[in-house]
From TrEMBL:
Catalytic activity reported: ADP-D-ribose + H2O = D-ribose 5-phosphate + AMP + 2 H(+)
Record's protein name: ADP-ribose pyrophosphatase, mitochondrial
Coiled coil, from the record: 223-250
Region (Disordered): 49-72
Length: 340
């Protein structure tokens, strides 16, 4: 494939020292030593992915009865010859209707996208590096998914999202940190939503609008999904804006930037995200937030971080990275297998 296919660093602010190796591919040993090969997988330019995407090969496709062609793990990589591979095609009617957030079909007049570039206000560059374009169609850099087209995704190629991870320490009725009896570490909580589309618990987040800064997306999506900002009055919104501006202007660190093993991915369109952690050490600021489910969320609540969480897409892995960075409790297993 074209390009080095590298993923950007796990960036940090001055709150943490930058990791000694500057990209995810070079950090696989770190991830494996901490007990998890990420589902947000990467593949090098010399062979198949170390851990080929799994959720991007599941059937039926979300919100439909469409079945993917079965893709064995050993045939996920495009570099593996598979002459018989002939997946079905599916693009949701909501995408074909031509909303402002979606591209036209390839081949339509006046649609000449600049792939692998900033295309006007539309970001068509990938965190993963250069991706291939074949017959006018982008090709998923992680390999085959068993389905062509765009599914529920609006853009050909990368579809960029942002996931704000707001955290606080769990405290007892006296305001003291709750310490886990096995690990001896504090228990970290994050604001989680229950998605309307699939019923899974997740980090609140959403798509980056064309020309929008990631910081704006993070604040907007948290407000819409975890604070129901779309249903607030003007006066309520003004107060909400003050709270959000204060919360999202504090120190933070980027947990992850890159490809996400998402069930909506196809051979021609895929999800990428930037997950960012905002932490309130005392809890004084975050405790004042009036959590209320809204927009794409059915419920919202504070959830304890631990290794038993089952979250949407690759969100469990993002949560583990936050717990480790903050020195919080994660697992009750005091002697984990370092190669698990």
């Amino acid at each position: 494939m074209a390009g080095p296919h590298l993923v950007k660093a796990l960036a940090t602010t001055s709150l943490f020292l930058a990791p000694p190796r500057s990209n995810i591919l070079a950090s696989w040993s770190h991830f494996f030593s901490h007990g998890f090969p990420l589902d947000v997988i990467m593949s090098g330019s010399k062979g198949a992915a170390e851990t080929p995407h799994k959720k991007a090969r599941t059937s039926p496709y979300p919100g439909s009865k469409v079945q993917r062609s079965q893709v064995p793990t050993e045939k996920v990589s495009w570099q593996v010859e598979w002459a018989e591979y002939n997946p079905g095609e599916y693009t949701a009617s909501s995408v074909l209707a031509g909303p402002v957030w979606a591209d036209p079909q390839v081949g339509e007049r006046n649609f000449s996208p600049k792939f692998n570039e900033k295309d006007g206000n539309v970001e068509r560059r990938s965190q993963f590096g250069l991706y291939e374009v074949e017959n006018g169609r982008t090709r998923n850099p992680m390999g085959r998914t068993g389905l062509a087209g765009r599914g529920l995704l609006g853009r050909w190629g990368p579809n960029h999202a942002a996931d704000p991870i707001l955290t606080r320490w769990k405290r007892d009725s006296q305001g003291s940190k709750v310490i886990h009896p096995v690990s001896g570490k504090g228990i970290l909580q994050f604001a989680a939503i229950k998605r309307k589309d699939c019923g899974e618990w997740a980090i609140p987040g959403g798509m980056v609008d064309p020309g929008e800064k990631i910081s704006t997306t993070l604040k907007r999506e948290f407000g819409e999904e975890a604070m129901n900002s779309l249903q607030k009055s003007r006066a309520e919104m003004q107060e909400l804006e003050k709270q959000l501006n204060k919360l999202f202007s504090q120190e933070h660190f980027v947990v992850y930037k890159g490809y996400v093993d998402d069930p909506r991915n196809t051979d021609n369109a895929w999800m990428e995200t930037e997950a960012v952690n905002y932490h309130d050490e005392t809890g004084e600021m975050i405790d004042q937030l009036p959590l209320e489910a809204g927009d794409d969320a059915k419920k919202v609540k504070w959830v304890d971080m631990n290794d038993r969480l089952k979250l949407y897409a690759s969100h469990s892995q993002f949560i583990q990275l936050v717990a480790e960075k903050r020195g919080a409790h994660w697992s009750e297993d005091l002697y984990p297998d370092s190669h698990r």
